């Protein structure tokens, strides 16, 4: 059965569809450096509320999710999640934690809302997301502005949506100590991975045969990077998309930017030399946890 679709005019509020969804084509062209301003800081400070409900549209910027509505399939927001938000205090925004809290290092601090607005403006003005890596290098966002998106689950990692439109997707992933992703690609998109707290080891793989779609896939030996701490940035592109991420030591937090939303990816099994397609899910949207479906026997929510 093909996935049902819901039109979301405000976070987690379904209403009848009125138009076709925006195109999901990959947005990537050029690498113009635009991020110098992010390292100097911005003149206006955004509030946490401006992140939960993305900032008002300006100029050519695309309409934010909470204003104009974005199409999601059931694999993004399961129907059970659309019907119910778990109300208990343990599931409220920023309250679902496991063990000790992650520690944050003060470096090039900026408010999350302010940073997302800068990113939106640049993504709306030019094709692609050139310069993101330069802007993320050494950047650790203000811990208080991340608080609504810090949701941990024991023995797993969570994917928490901060912002999404046709050109851009921003997630905060929260990792319980020792958790790891499957070996996965990024569906042909550019992806930036920024360590905000804790430490990570990355395993980068080359594709030696197959692996362009579900079926046979042979990977080369992994190249290990890390442990890497706060301020480190990793970049995945269509020419080198495959890696695995492991949170070492205590709980950890990573920020992810995609040059276009990623709804599916390939997950690789090196022993069987095969890969399968996985549908991605969010644990929370705008800081609000979703009702969780039964867990799969293997991780099915890679970065």
Written description of the protein model:
The chain has helices at 36-40, 48-52, 65-68, 79-83, 112-125, 132-136, 143-146; strands at 5-10, 13-15, 70-73, 157-164, 169-175, 183-184, 191-205, 207-210, 215-219, 223-228, 233-236, 242-258, 264-269, 274-279, 284-285, 288-289. It has 303 residues and is α+β, with helices and mostly antiparallel strands. The chain has a single domain (5-289), classed as Jelly Rolls (Sandwich). The strands form three sheets. Strands 4, 5, 7, 10, 11, 12, 15 and 16 form an eight-stranded mixed beta sheet that branches. The radius of gyration is 18 Å and the shape is globular. The chain starts with a strand and ends in a 14-residue tail after the last strand. The model is unreliable at 1-101 and 296-303 (pLDDT under 50). There is a cross-link at residues 191-258 (3'-(S-cysteinyl)-tyrosine (Cys-Tyr)). One of its GO terms (molecular function) is oxidoreductase activity, acting on single donors with incorporation of molecular oxygen, incorporation of two atoms of oxygen. This is Cysteine dioxygenase. Fe cation binds at residues 184, 186, 243.
């Amino acid at each position: 059965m093909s996935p049902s679709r819901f039109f979301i005019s405000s976070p987690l509020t379904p209403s009848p569809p009125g138009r076709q969804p925006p195109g999901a084509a990959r947005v990537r062209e050029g690498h113009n450096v635009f991020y110098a301003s992010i390292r100097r800081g911005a003149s206006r400070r955004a509030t946490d509320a401006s992140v939960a409900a993305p900032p008002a549209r300006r100029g050519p910027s695309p309409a934010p999710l909470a204003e104009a509505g974005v199409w999601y399939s059931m694999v993004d927001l399961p129907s059970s999640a659309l019907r119910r938000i778990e109300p208990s205090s343990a599931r409220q925004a920023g309250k679902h934690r496991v063990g000790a809290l992650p520690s944050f290092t003060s470096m090039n601090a900026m408010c999350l809302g302010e940073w997302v607005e800068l990113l939106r403006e640049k993504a709306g003005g030019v094709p692609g997301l050139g310069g993101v890596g330069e802007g993320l290098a050494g950047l650790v966002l203000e811990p208080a502005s991340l608080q609504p998106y810090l949701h941990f689950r024991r023995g797993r990692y969570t994917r928490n949506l901060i912002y999404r439109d046709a050109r851009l997707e921003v997630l905060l992933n929260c990792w319980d100590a020792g958790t790891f992703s499957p070996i996965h690609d990024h569906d042909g998109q550019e992806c930036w991975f920024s360590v905000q707290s804790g430490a990570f080891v990355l395993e980068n793989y080359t594709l030696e045969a197959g692996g362009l779609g579900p079926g046979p896939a042979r990977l080369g030996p992994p190249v290990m990077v890390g442990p890497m701490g706060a301020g480190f940035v990793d970049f995945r592109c269509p020419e080198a998309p495959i890696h695995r991420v492991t949170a070492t030591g205590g709980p950890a937090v990573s920020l992810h930017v995609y040059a276009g939303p990623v709804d599916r990816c390939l997950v690789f099994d090196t022993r069987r030399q095969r890969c399968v397609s996985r549908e991605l899910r969010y644990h929370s949207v705008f800081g609000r946890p979703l009702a969780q479906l039964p867990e799969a026997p293997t991780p099915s929510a890679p970065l």
